[in-house]
Amino acid sequence: MHIVQTRKDLRALVEQWRSAGETIGVVPTMGALHDGHLALVNALEGKATRRIVTIFVNPIQFNNPEDFKLYPRGVEADVALLAATGGVDVLYNPNEHEMYPPGFATRVMVSGLDSMLCGGDRPGHFDGVATVVSKLLNQTGAQIAAFGEKDYQQLCIIRRLVSDMDMPVDILPVATVREADGLALSSRNRRLSPAERQQAALLPAALKTCLAALLAGQPSASALAECATTLQAAGFTVHYLDLRAQQTLQPLSHPEPGARLFVAATLGDVRLIDNMPVSATA
């Protein structure tokens, strides 16, 4: 596995592969890798002859400087994990100066999808995501990129970005990977205390209970209210708990095919997100 830190060195490898007719897949990450990231790498098997994983903690997608400072990092462990897979050709690990050199002044915005859900209480977050993903797709020359459904709003925004900007990249969605107790894998989980980690499993459990209520015919407003009350009683601060259309992310007043339940809630000082399709069962 090559470890590359500059655009120049990455471009040299990419040009060599593309001239040989290879297909390049990429998994953009912010590091602190776990099995969810490895599922993205594995999803590219058979679809790309060369696989690149990027690690860059993107400062411009953090509206809270303290959150950026506390975001878990551990490149040495990440390198060991990727190398052990035997399926990653390049780890691209640029520094901030490489990604945003002096004079950098461009932001990419996907209007509409960026102002709801996580965009509502994290202003500018998705502009930062769209900007860095645009750069990484260009830098890696990827024809296919894998993104997890755990960050479903991000997935929708990147799909729209690629479509609107005529980027020759296929976006491959990968199902959320969960712990045995149902908690969605996330790098942020490392910041939970042991007691909070145990408590965090109540988040997916509450979503499943809410989904079961919706499928049983309970009115959406009361099912969502009961779920929010359950989470608050368990110590969560609920930022949003919404039933939305999975294609447009528009609010829904009742379950329908393609509907998803979305939640963001803070436990301690750790912000957790999750989503489940209404077709999921309890």
Automatic annotation (TrEMBL):
CDD domains, per the entry: PanC
Binding site for (R)-pantoate: 61, 154
UniProt cross-references to Pfam families, sorted A to Z: Pantoate_ligase
Gene3D superfamilies: HUPs, Pantoate-beta-alanine ligase, C-terminal domain
An example molecular function term from Gene Ontology annotations: pantoate-beta-alanine ligase activity
Domain of life: Bacteria
InterPro entries: Pantoate_ligase, Pantoate_ligase_C, Rossmann-like_a/b/a_fold
UniProt-annotated catalytic positions: 37 (proton donor)
Binding site for ATP: 30-37, 148-151, 177, 185-188
Extra remark: The reaction proceeds by a bi uni uni bi ping pong mechanism.
Similarity remark: Belongs to the pantothenate synthetase family.
Job description of the protein: Catalyzes the condensation of pantoate with beta-alanine in an ATP-dependent reaction via a pantoyl-adenylate intermediate.
PANTHER family in alphabetical order: CYTIDYLATE KINASE/PANTOATE-BETA-ALANINE LIGASE (PTHR21299), PANTOATE--BETA-ALANINE LIGASE (PTHR21299:SF1)
Record's protein name: Pantothenate synthetase
Species per Swiss-Prot/TrEMBL record: Acetobacter suratthaniensis
